[in-house]
Amino acid sequence: MFGKIIYISDNKAFIENNVSNEQKGDLLNLHVIFEYEDQKLLGEIVEMKEKEIEIKFLGEFINGKYYNGVLRKANLNSKVRIINTNELLELIGQESNKNFVLGKSATYKDFYVCPEINELFANHMCIFGNSGSGKSCGVSRIVQNILSNKNSLAYNANLIFFDSFGEYKNAFKEISTINPYYNYKFVTSRLRDETDVKINIPLNLMKTDDFAVLLQADKHSQLTIIERALKYAKIFSSNNDESNKFKNHIIAKALITILYSQNTSRQKKDDIFTIIDTCHTPEFNLDAVIPGIGYTRSFSECFAIDAKGHFGEEVLITEYILKFIDENIEEIMEPEDSIFTLSEFAKALEFTLISEGFNQNKNMHDDAQLLKVRLKTILNSPMGEFFTGDSYVTPAKFITNLVSCNNKKAQIININLETLDDVYAKALVKIYSRIIFDFAKENANRATVPFHLFLEEAHRYIQRDNDVFLLGYNIFDRIAKEGRKYGVILDIISQRPVEISDTVIAQCSNFLIFKMTHPKDIKYIEEMLPNISADVIEKMKILQPGTCVAFGTAFKIPMICKLDMPNPRPYSASCDVSSYWDSRTDIKKDLDASTEQLYGNDVTEQKTFIDSTIINNNI
Fold it and tell me: Which of 125, 93, 97, 130 is nearest to 112 (CA)?
């Protein structure tokens, strides 16, 4: 079939074209072997000309194993032949307890691409493609194939989907039919079915960084405010005499600062009443009784202004306030097992703003007002219901609750975010990811509990945020760099790779690229992945829906895979506009019911009535 090698140039060989015209079209993209003595090189046919065939060298077979790259060029006397079955299976793999079926080979009929599970799922992966190219269906099919592998039982899998549009519920809700040991859990922002579980993040697990993300902090001064408020919320949660003394100490110091200021009595009174209105205790409120010598006054009466413009009971109120200042109480330690609600955190934020260092600082006050407004917005929206403080939850218990469903292990946890704005969806994904990553890092048996975070529409979350400037890190950057060692793996699904953090993509080892046509995205992929060939770039522009170019550490050579349609499918299909525009079907159903009453079983009369009704009403 193939003639002699004419010449070899760079990484290509040009051989005589002795192929018949009927066979020429079928040879493109097939792989050939250059054999000479102990040398066996792999090449791919990239161009068929009238008199010569252009073949690109890919790698070398050594003792039956394939290795990428060619150290020695092919000998001019090498025999050139089509790759045989054993060599092809070495490249594409076979289904086993360590390999699973990804999809059909688009080049070799009746052969399946079966990458190693470890090579594909022990490394970060990117799944890119235009809208409608088959990303969601492809991901659903991959997971269904993993769970359907007869050679293994993925019982301990933790596949956590952050589902932007609720697409995957239909695809995974029946996984128990594949195997009764498999279970599916649907965690959502809005309950619809009996089996749905509402998003729930215990506030005691949230750190300063999490609150900063949730409240969209953008200044370091706001971190200081959040940190102080979080400390106060934990102390106040004890609700004992010591915590009440601490509150009184904060209020007293704030009031003394105002009393000793240079403001007018009227301004002092307004400022003091404002503080008491927002932060009050049994000892500090407008109706609190202030004992004098032989008489008493209410707290508000002590601030009556006399004719000279002074407080009539300034000495009395000053002595009363000073009794509650105790500098030693500031050394109080926050309880380790404290619990508090989001409303209680908001109250702690109010105490923070009147505490020393904040109450007379205009810049701090302005920064804090933004946090207060955003926190109030969350409290007054369904978002506030996702953060609970009714019991103390350890990280281990939180993870256990997350991956269990009806006292059974759930292999797929689908977190549905479709009702949330991008800013809140991003915050939730970051908080979940941070808790999971920290849990994995603290696991004594490192990487024995792997978590796979599937981020649908990842460009909504993995962005070039100012987290590094504000917090010193971005959680997705950190997981991308370190997560593999602890068993936290990112699976990034997006139609806009150009909007995703460069740092994260640079750490990904495997890529499934569905059809992509946007020049910016194509250029970005080409620049971010220096090892990607021009041939792969060209291929991904013309792929059919459901077909992808697969390359990376899990694939010995770049492969074009045709993924079967998942069964059942995700909710990712386009709207069937023509069917829903056409109302005649529904109208005919109504007419059928009415004509049956009018004409009984007389089919001819029924049809005449229906047709005339449709025509007369221009339906």
Answer: 93
21: confidence class by pLDDT, cuts 50, 70, 90: low
For 345-371, the pLDDT digits (tens) are 999 999 998 887 676 677 777 888 899
CA distance 147 to 123: 19
What pLDDT, on a 0 to 100 scale, did the predictor assign at position 530?
58
Q: Supply φ then ψ for residue 425, to 5 degrees.
A: -60, -45
Its sign, for the CA torsion 89, 93, 98, 99, is negative
Please tell me what DSSP assigns to residue 479: I
Per DSSP, the residues of 293-318 read SS-EEETTGGG-B-TTSSBTTHHHHH
What is the length of the chain?
A: 619
CB 312 within 8 A of CB 297: no
Taking CB atoms within 8 Å and a gap of at least 24, the contacts of 280-285 are 280/251, 281/244, 281/247, 281/248, 281/251, 282/244, 283/244, 283/248, 283/324, 284/248, 284/251, 284/252, 284/255, 284/324
Widest Cα–Cα separation across the chain:
120
Dihedral sign of CA atoms 541, 543, 548, 553 in order: negative
**Phi, psi for 293 (deg, rounded to 5):** -85, 100
Percent above pLDDT 90 for the chain: 61
d(CA 494, CA 508): 14
Inter-residue contact 70 to 59 (CB < 8 Å): yes
SS3 379: helix
Rounded to whole angstroms, the Cα distance separating 87 from 111 reads 13
Residue tagged 């003595």 (tokens): 37
Q: What does the block give as tokens for 156?
A: 């301990």
Q: What are phi and psi of 529, to 5 degrees?
A: -120, 85
pLDDT confidence band for 525 (50 / 70 / 90): confident
- Full-model pTM: 0.87
- Positive/negative CA dihedral, 398, 171, 148, 123: negative
DSSP letter at 158? -
Q: Which residue has the tokens 């690109």?
A: 56
**CB-based contacts of 576-583 (< 8 A; 24+ apart in sequence):** 583/619
pLDDT at residue number 593:
61
Kindly list the structural domains of the chain, giving each domain's residue range(s) and its CATH number in brackets, ordered by start.
2-83 (2.40.30), 112-182+411-524+537-562 (3.40.50.300), 220-383 (no CATH), 586-616 (no CATH)
Amino acid identity of 321? I
Strands (E), 444-537: 451-455, 488-494, 510-513
In this structure, of 106-110, 210-214, 319-323, the range with the lowest mean pLDDT score is 106-110
Nearest to 492 by CA among 133, 123, 169: 123
| CA distances for 405 relative to 168, 181, 201, 414, 436, angstroms | 17, 12, 16, 12, 18
Q: How many helices (H) and strands (E) does the chain have?
A: 23, 25
User: How many C-beta neighbours within 10 Å does residue 578 have?
Assistant: 7
Looking at the predicted structure, is the pLDDT value of residue 618 above 70?
no
